[in-house]
Amino acid sequence: MSTSSAAPAAKPPMRDALVEAAFRLFVERGYDRTTVDDIVALAGVGRRSFFRYFPSKEDVVFPDHERCLADMTAFLAAGDGTGEPVERVCDAARLVLRMYAENPAFSVRRYRLTKQVPGLRAYELSVVRRYERALAGYLRERYAGRPDGTLRADVIAAAVVAAHNNALRSWLRSDGAGDADAAVDRALGCVRAAFAEPGGGAADRPRVTPVTPVRSEGEDVIVVVARRDAPLWRVVREVEAVLGRP
Q1: Residues 29 and 100 in one domain
Q2: Regions of the chain where pLDDT drops below 70
């Protein structure tokens, strides 16, 4: 008669063990009453191990954002500069959704915790701002030849982040139920509809020709030649420039 025993379960990676220990304590004791010493004691490691992975207690709540930010920056840099810029930043924003969707249960736990702790909400806003700066930096380069390039880049980056976060938070409030991808796609569709320009990478190509004033029977007649998809604000701006008033 032979005896056998099941192989012992593999230990989770130290980084994951620290995150799990931290969240267990946050639930049991509360975030503010949990210290780094408490976390490492439960995880069975030393303080040095904690700070090897996380600069602070706040960072253990958002363990994947640094990786995601690096992935987003690399994704934007890998483009050849010929695609439609708004489409590119919308695709970059989906990398953040993918991070949350990889572990819905953990994402929901973090969302609940962050709602309860003002300091974590402030920390989260600082992380979101870094994503926005990465998107804006890419767009500023793509729109560098336009007089409104910087403004356009900053507005679009803010719109992408706002649309993405609106859909993401709705999904988190539902405890991860529903199709997060579809919700984010709908939200980003609003951004594409408002800002994406047909013609692929021809984002810098003017869609309104210079306005020419024509004098006819003692009156000034303004002639504007514009593509059908030219936004109204751009047509108005050209007319105002000729008339010499804002």
Answers
A1: no
A2: 1-12, 199-246
